[in-house]
Structure formats: C-alpha cells, structure tokens
Amino acid sequence: AAGGAAPATKPTAFAFPVGEVMRFQARFGPFNVGQAVIEVAGIDTVRGVEAVHLRFEIDGGALWYDLQQTNQSWVGRADFRSLRFEQDTKENNRSRHRRFDIFPDSGYYRQEGVDTVAPTVADPLDDAAFLYWMRTVPLEIGKRYEYHRYFRPDRNPVIVRVLKRDRVNVAGRKWDAIVVRPIIPHGRGIFAEKSDARMWISDDERRVVLAIVSTFSFGTVTLKLKEYTTPERP
User: Fold this and answer.
1) Which tens digits make up the pLDDT trace of 86-104?
2) pTM (2 decimals)?
3) Which residues, in sequence order, are CB contacts of 93 under 8 Å at separation 6+?
4) Is CB count within 10 Å lower at the N or C end of the chain?
C-alpha cells in the first residue's frame, strides 16, 4: 500500500447540515445490544466563536456488561477546529466525566480538574470531530494517510488506512462503500489502536457512515446504520 503523510490541508468550513442524524443498531454476535446516534446537534457559541455542536452517543450492553458513552464536540463553524470536547462514560457501575477546552489560536488545551495547561496542535480535532473530518478527506483505496491533528500531540499521527471497496445493505437500501481503518495511537475508545476498528463510508458526495465495527473489552460490536436523515432529505 502506498504510504506517506496526508497533504497539508487548509482548515475548511464545517460542511455538514445541522440536523443530520445517523442512527445505528448495535449488535454483538447474534444479539441486538443497543443503539448509537451520530448527529450534528446544533449551532452554539464557544468563547465568542460560532461553533457546530456534534454528538456521538452509544447506549448498550451485553450480558454482564453495560456501556453508555456520550462524546460531544464543538468545532469552529468557519475553520473546523475543535474548541471543546466532553466525554461521559458509564461502564457497568463506573462513571467518568472528562472535559477539555481547546484554544487553537493560543496553542494549548486545558482539562477540567487539572491545574496546568498542555500544548495542542495548530488545527486540533477531537474524537467526535475526527469522525466528521474523515468524511471530508480524499480516500484512495490502498493508501495510508497520517494526520497530525489530534488535539493531544502525543496521540499523533492519527492514521487512516483505506482498505477496500464494498457493497453493504443498511437502512433499507444497498450502498457502495469505502472501508477504512482509523487509528488514534495511545487513544481510548472506539478508534483506539487496540479496538481494531473498521468504518464503512458511503462512496458518494454525502459520505454517510454506514457501519462501524470495534472491539470492546467483552468482544466485537457492530454498529449498522438503520436510519439516515438530513433536514433536506428525511
């Protein structure tokens, strides 16, 4: 496979419509174990900057295991840079809340509950924002792209391997898809290296997320799109 860093890209405006919602069924082997939602939730203001509010929520469990996780991201509407990231995780009876305020122009981020600030990258993205970012970049079969855009510098480069073309039947129709493997080194969550995640993205101008397969502590979960709505196209 061809390799190399992805070409440097100028920050671009956020491209997806407010009100776009992707709903998924979560399966663990033959069992339905929950659902997930990925949505452009609204327009907000963060520290005086117009921001798009993104939400990625998983709610499910299998047998003895229960997981609820909400990732929320606020990205600059004009430049697609992360300004704030919040993650709430409830795993069995353990709860964890993490919040990061990211200051791209000043070059640092601050984690709630931590006294010191830490350096960030020039055009930072967080976990939820990366999912949307992947929908905007060129994806050539067989290529391996590296992006130095994760807001925590020690977790770069984020790697996207473009594996193959596929055809999948989800949300009531057949789609041409591109299969990618996103990796956030030393990360946690759905795109962590050890999660060995795969993502199916529609091979058209909308770049809909059709399915995600990711390995959790108890086994491999498949999220399959069951409903896709946009304001223009219910």
Assistant:
1) 999 888 888 999 999 999 9
2) 0.89
3) none
4) C
- 2-28, pLDDT tens digit by residue? 455 554 456 688 989 999 999 999 888
Q: What is the DSSP letter of 55?
A: E
Nearest one of 78, 100, 76, 75 to 87, comparing CA atoms:
100
Q: Which residues pair with 60 in a beta bridge?
A: 34, 67
In this prediction, residue 7 carries a pLDDT of 46
Q: Residue 64: helix, strand or coil by DSSP?
A: coil
Three-state DSSP class for residue 32:
strand
Positive or negative: CA dihedral 207, 200, 168, 68: negative
- Residue 85: exposure state from Cβ atoms within 10 A (0-12, 13-18, ≥19): buried
Count Cβ atoms below 10 Å from residue 96 Cβ, excluding itself: 10
Residue 225 has a CB neighbour count (10 Å cut-off) of 23
Q: How far apart are CA 76 and CA 124, in angstroms?
A: 10
| Max intra-chain CA distance, the chain | 51
Q: Are strands 198-202 and 173-183 parallel, antiparallel or unpaired?
A: antiparallel
Rounded CA-CA distance 185/166 in Å is 26
Mapping DSSP to helix (H, G, I), strand (E, B) and coil, where does residue 193 land?
Answer: helix
